[in-house]
Amino acid sequence: ERGEIEGFELLLNAQQTVEDEGTAWNKNCVISLIIGLSVNQSVQSVDVGRPLETSSFDEETSSTTRELAVQGITNPQWISQSGVVNERPFFDNDLDGSGQTVGIADAGLDTDNCYFYDSSNSEDFYGRYSWDMSQRKVVHYDSDFADRRETNRGHGTAVAAAAVGRRSFDGLVESNGYADGTAPGSKLAFLDMGIGSAAIQDPGVVRLFESLSQADNGAKTIVGSWGRSYHGLYSSFCKDYDAILRDTFTDVLFVTSSGNTGSTGTITVQNPADCKNTLAVGSGLNYGNDIRSNELGIDYLADYSSKGPTADGRIKPDIIAPGHFLLTANANVDMVGECDGGIPDSRYGARGDGVRYVSGTSFAAPTVAGSATLIRQYFIEGWCTTDRCCGSKGCGSSISPSNSLMKALLLNGAVPMTGKVQKVPNGAVLEESFAVYDGKQGFGRINLLNSVPLYGSNELQLIAVNDKTITYGNEHDYIIDINTSNGCSSDLKVTLVWMDPPGATGCLNCLVNDLDVYVEEIGGSEKIYYPNGLSRRDSKNTVERLVINTSNGERFRVSVKATNLVSEQRYSLAIAGCLADDIDTSMNQQTNSPSKRPTDAPTSKRPTNKQTTQLTSCMSPDECNKARKQKGIKRMFVGENFPSYGCFIKGNTAFFGLGFTSKDQIENTDLPGYRQRLMCQLEASGTNTTIDYLSVEPSSAPSLQPSINPTLHPTLNQTSGQTIQPTQKLTPWPTNDASVLPTTPTPAETATKEARWWPKSDKRKIECVLSTDYKVDVAGANVMFETEDDCVEYLVELLKKHS
Fold this sequence. Notes:
alpha/beta; 803 residues; seven-stranded parallel sheet; 12 helices; globular; 22% strand; single chain
């Protein structure tokens, strides 16, 4: 089934024990077949498929133990929502997952357990394409892949209840149960992956997503509490998950367990938790009635919870939730309507008829998935405008959040765990490093009240940028003012998330599209803050977060930069804190990078690859010129050397970029020697303005005549009155302001190196040649190099970006 995307699986199931020639039992035959496939020119990679394993941690509980419980108070609910004992502010605001559907792909489901039971006893929801939204809880059960059976104490029943379980004795009237899930108001769509008592089978990523998300009311949050170990290496399975989450199911959040092999060391996160676009969940300890006497509570991580980073150094797991010693539904296939054990309300058996205790990241994952569903309900019910959340139902409009926004909000609100790693069940506290952004707790423990505003429950303000597109070389800026006068005391938290294209199997640096977020203090120290606890930009992760302590009246610029892209990229951004009402979210776009690569070292000034700041994207050239005069700026340059259309300012110089209007134009003309550039140098003083058009005609260029599009640039076209013809006379940039653009020597000055790159005989050739002429390179700026090594390094970077 995985062949529906880009390949196929070869299943070698030996049915005999004799090493006959030409059988799957004969290892030489198998190896020969694999080698034969490997050398075929159409085959990109060959992987060993490993069996799926569930992420439950087997732990013996004494059959004589009786655990105290409180009916209707489920610890994972308040831990996820507020972190304050028994405070569930989202439930208080009728945010319980109603109107939403959670998808579970697992080994089987006991549908007549009281946490799923429906009195209609309908069969209409069974089947790959069958849905019945009138059901109380289970609206879809895809039994076509497996056998529609659950086993006693089955894994799938326990996982599903942790997310959406809601007790009903008669299948009609619901009541608060001992084991309600974190989204008790949600419906459940289920894909059965289990066959008998054997291990679960992999239906393939396409089959899985199409089953659970195919209908209008299909699941927008899917849980996979299973995985396979590749020791942190990026596999072809990750390619499948990353591709489908980026390109097809862009509104589906895939939540997966990190695994239970953390006690063996680091780089133990399983696949697909180690993929770029999934949300990997580790297991924290529980609270109160749901811990044993030697366990220390919600700020401690269970030692078995698998640890990162990935083999290429990415932060995993992403987030932590209670998954240890969690009370959930128990599958009892010989009973109908089994519930809280038939034991008086204050007590129940640890291995009761309808509930039981479980441990593992398998159960932390649905805890997060259910909580995420509350956030999705929040957006669907209109708690936000298009870019800002107002904190009360109906104050905005209904918004369908992307998977990247959901992930950004959850990780933006996560809080640091202040404890340690604790060995269970013996209780020994491990003396090892334990901090956010490490390979143990990732971005911290889930806390929804830190993620979105709830009027009356927090003072948080939130800007939510949902799936915005950015192209290479551009930068989007958001100006933030801090206001703590209303009693708000939250830190400024900024989280950038994007769904990255799939990497190469076994990649050592798996990031494909590299975005960066950084925050600059304006008007004070001008300090630059970098994400993920670093003192430089992050070039590995698809999640970047900053947490900054702020004071009233401070101003910050949040910048999202497309540092290196192979294609345009959508991103989501969460900015939360004590934000003033007036926020400038205009998008700023940058010029191409300068000739020398920027350093990653921290600085008190803005990064060196930030060239310009946009005044506005909708100004005409004349309006830009007027704005320049009002600001007292003495010089202005206009031309196609600037890749973006709009009015910009840098220091004491203004720029107006003519830009390109379509992707095709950029691809067809932005090669050196094949793009003629029109350079308009506008010298302005007072009301007198003179325009002198300069252009470059590369020696290897085809006969293309540069001109101004009168539709896009009517002002310049009217000013010139004619099509601008190329000229061989070249004028360097002004030498009295080196900060504007690199100053280029005139032909009479010392010879320098010039970068050239052009198609030739179906091959791309690069070289650095000695030149005394004023030339223009592919990036759009006039760039020269003092040494040939500098030139070659620059050309290599160009090849990476354009190949």
